[in-house]
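To illustrate the input format used throughout this study, we show a single complete record. The first block contains the structure-token representation of the backbone; no residue identities are included at this stage. The design step must infer an amino acid for every position from geometry alone.
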């Protein structure tokens, strides 16, 4: 369904709470952009050493970089500087979280299907660019926390066979720690924000051209959007911006984030217990912790599998996630446009794959905190690592199977409710002496929601592999009894008439 810019004002916009994630991500970026521009003025992107002489007594006399010195000055000497820094940091975390949720929503509802496969790639690109911006940003203060995460990045780069050392020298401008800020600063304040703005613009243009996908409901079809007017949607969106601004302000004013004065200056020779990566990159760190220290010799060179394996696995995970819409499209061979979203329970295999992915990510994520968990709960660190290793192998397949079974049960129950109505628990005696349970019929929207979806597309391919995979993907689709708008309304009419007749005979209570 191609749309033109001219009909924008007269168009209907779907009204669903989960459509807010993308908007919140964009508004957090606006907050990040404005606060970032303010921080640019006092921040000094230089690793030249200075002796700290500011108001924070515990660090007075300590030699540190100008970058850390200026960030401390922003925090303690600039009016509202700490507030601006904290708002910048909190809003950037909100942005990462919202883009993740947006991607998950698109995945679980099939919002990535034709004609929105390009939009999916754009959102995925946004996700990567935002992670890059957040990682380069946390390195800018040059405190011990950022130094530790840079040491991990250096190790990962150096483990890449043949080109690793050169890559590390390029990133760090010589031997680690080198002058990483020379590269990271322009990346953080010019390149990545420009990429993010570009991707948001492309995402917006695509959304306007294609129109948003909507959940099934009465009157909603592949070509007809039912929802609020453009004016109402715009006012609500403006309200959402105020809300995002308010939440960022509140968090920035009340919740401490990244207290660099407690960590002190970065030093490649120092590390501190309990230090970990930012939560959104923790899964990579978890991967490093769970792989045994394997090494192999190839052509006289030692390859460190302990790093190569988790990095390859995590990259593969992200690539598969990004390409999933294309894989599903190829497997199903369905070339039609899909403007109606799916309820996750109606696509058990895709939902199962999604939950398996979340389980994989979650286990790696938890493993990144293994040392803290072991310390807090007085557990053996080695035993904990073995448990996580086992969970990483059995967890994702178990999650897939379990989720599929849960989805099938939910579908069966939903269809039962759609056809028979909700059980009220009231037993009514019939004139002929029999007993029936009173079922309350559903409102049309709920009935649509439960049973108004279309059946899984039939696979028609030449390749045996495609057919097999398609059957696997379509497995456990409970066929809805009503698959078109007309049939749904006929069912509603029939059940309405039957309810009225039963009430007339006194078999059902009057509403
Ligand atoms: C035009 C856009 C941006 C500008 C001009 C900018 C500027 C800056 C500057 C100067 C700093 C160092 C000062 C400090 O650490 O307090 C900084 C830190 C940071 N930036 Fe940005 N930034 C921008 C965009 C972003 C984006 C898109 C993200 C992530 C989504 C981000 C995340 C961060 C983080 C996490 C820090 C560390 C904050 C801290 O010290 O606690 N920034 N930024």
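Output of the design step:
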């Amino acid at each position: 369904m191609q749309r033109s810019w001219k009909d924008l004002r007269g168009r209907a916009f779907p009204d669903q709470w989960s459509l807010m994630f993308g908007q919140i991500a964009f508004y957090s970026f606006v907050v990040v952009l404005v606060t970032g521009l303010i921080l640019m003025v006092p921040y000094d992107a230089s690793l030249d050493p200075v002796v700290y002489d500011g108001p924070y007594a515990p660090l007075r006399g300590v030699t540190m970089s100008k970058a850390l010195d200026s960030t401390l000055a922003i925090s303690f000497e600039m009016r509202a500087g700490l507030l601006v820094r904290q708002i910048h940091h909190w809003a950037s975390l909100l942005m990462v979280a919202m883009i993740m949720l947006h991607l998950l929503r698109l995945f679980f509802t099939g919002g990535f299907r034709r004609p929105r496969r390009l939009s999916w790639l754009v959102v995925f690109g946004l996700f990567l660019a935002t992670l890059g911006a957040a990682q380069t940003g946390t390195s800018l203060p040059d405190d011990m926390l950022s130094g530790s995460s840079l040491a991990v990045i250096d190790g990962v780069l150096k483990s890449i066979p043949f080109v690793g050392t050169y890559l590390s020298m390029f990133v760090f401008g010589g031997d680690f720690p080198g002058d990483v800020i020379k590269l990271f600063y322009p990346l953080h304040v010019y390149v990545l924000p420009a990429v993010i703005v570009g991707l948001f613009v492309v995402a917006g243009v695509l959304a306007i051209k294609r129109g948003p996908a909507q959940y099934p409901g009465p009157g909603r079809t592949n070509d007809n959007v039912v929802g609020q007017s453009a004016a109402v949607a715009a006012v609500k969106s403006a309200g959402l911006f105020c809300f995002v601004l308010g939440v960022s302000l509140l968090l920035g004013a009340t919740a401490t984030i990244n207290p660099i004065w407690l960590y002190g200056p970065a030093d490649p020779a120092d590390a501190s217990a309990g230090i970990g990566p930012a939560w959104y990159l923790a899964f990579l760190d978890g991967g490093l912790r769970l792989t045994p220290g394997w090494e192999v010799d190839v052509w006289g060179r030692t390859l460190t599998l302990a790093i190569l394996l988790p990095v390859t696995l995590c990259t593969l995970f992200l690539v598969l996630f990004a390409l999933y819409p294309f894989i599903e499209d190829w497997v199903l061979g369905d070339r039609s446009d899909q403007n109606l979203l799916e309820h996750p329970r109606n696509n058990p295999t895709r939902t199962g794959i999604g939950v398996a992915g979340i389980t994989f990510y979650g286990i790696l994520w938890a493993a990144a905190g293994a040392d803290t968990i072991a310390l807090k709960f007085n557990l053996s660190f080695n035993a904990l690592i073995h448990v996580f290793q086992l969970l990483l192998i059995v967890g994702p397949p178990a999650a897939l199977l379990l989720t599929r079974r849960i989805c099938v049960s939910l579908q069966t129950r939903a269809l039962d409710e759609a056809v028979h109505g909700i059980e009220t628990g009231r037993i009514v005696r019939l004139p002929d002496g029999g007993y029936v349970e009173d079922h309350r019929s559903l409102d049309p929207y709920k009935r649509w929601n439960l049973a108004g979806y279309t059946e899984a597309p039939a696979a028609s391919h030449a390749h045996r592999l495609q057919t097999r995979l398609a059957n696997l993907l379509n497995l456990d689709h409970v066929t809805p009894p009503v698959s078109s708008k007309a049939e749904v309304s006929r069912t509603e009419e029939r059940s309405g008439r039957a309810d009225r007749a039963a009430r007339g005979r006194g078999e059902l209570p009057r509403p």
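Structural context for interpreting the output: The first strand starts at residue 12 and ends at 13. The pocket of protoporphyrin IX containing FE is lined by residues 32-33, 36-37, 39-40, 43, 71, 74, 85, 88-89, 92, 95, 130, 133-134, 137-138, 140-141, 188-189, 193, 196, 258 (CB under 6 Å).
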